[in-house]
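Good morning C.,

I know you're traveling, so I'll keep this short. The sequence:
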Amino acid sequence: MPKTHRIALLFNANKIYDRELITGIAAYLAGTRTAWDLFLEEDFRLRLSGIEDWQGDGIIADFDDPTVARALTATSVPLVAVGGSYENPDDYPAGIPYVATDNFKLVKLAYDHLIEAGLRNIAMFSLPEAQKNRWAQEREKAYSRLMVRDKLAPEIYRGQCTSASQWNESVEQQIAWLHSLPKPVGVIAVTDARARQLMQACALAGIEVPEQVAVIGIDNDPLARMLTRIPMSSVIQGAQEMGRTAAHLLDQMLHGVRLADTRILVPPAGINVLASSKHESGCHPHVMRARHFIRQYACQGIKTDQVADYVGISRSSLEGYFRQELGCSVHDEILRLRLEAATGILARGDCNLTDVAIRCGFTSSQYMHSVFKRELGCTPRAWQERSRTEAAPTTLAFRGGSGGDADARDYAGMKA
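The tokens, ready to paste straight into the viewer:
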């Protein structure tokens, strides 16, 4: 029988990035049938004391945390470090194999996306300068390089660390910064958590997202997305690939391969483009304001009259602007976002169709069924089955143009 090795994974399992890394390590073990007994704490920092004397066979550790890096300086067991990339090669730990997320490519993917959306003002929302935030400062450097390359002036706001005592002051400062920016503007947040905070500040200040401020984060964290009214765009880190790579390097070291100073940069896996960064230039201000309201409340059963009241014009005037700018009615836009929300829920797993209809603002499951048949050519269940076997489209081809009193028919669906 092959030897079973005792391996410590020093990651914070409460963070989505770390969980994805651990998932990649698990995938490597499953794919190679490598026998490891894993030492893993939900909060590894509780077990750092004495880790240098640990009697195991190997360690894979998060070196973005300076406390971890310091604790492992004297370890004698095979070690693979994981963390962010550095612009200066001298900043990497010496003599240790290192697997890095490519910070420059993460930021470039977000930057290019905002440029392609027609934005020419690009800013960054970062974190306060600190040793524990070195990875965020590296993302600032990447952003600044891109801006200088394009002969633009970098605009970086770090704000405060999240704390209950400073929450109100922090939000007020974010709002003041947002008001100071030229509009429209795209903002790259160094994490999804930071992006979510900024979107909350926009909501409190009445700033339209993405018409005035388009926001994109980094991490593709489903929890952060669930806590935003407007679906949030995010760059997907290649964290699972990083985990697989780190496990492979350690496996080689356990079999005698010398890998000191090996550095592997892993590019992002892609970008999840949702409503928060889908900026469309040239829309009439009334249409921009209406769509901002619809994005926030489409799934709460709003009607066209409520949208017109929010914008401050008559229903007929708003309908005219929508027909001219978008070629559809206000109700069509509400229905499109409800359909987008429903397909997203169905794609994530088993669910009760009545619950989905209620959550997405449809007046009944029967009405949702008819909308699916008309717009997607299949039932909700059929769409769900299809999404499991093939990649679902990121943008739905919504035909709309239902004509007549759509809001009245929506109410009729509730009576069915």
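Safe travels,
E.
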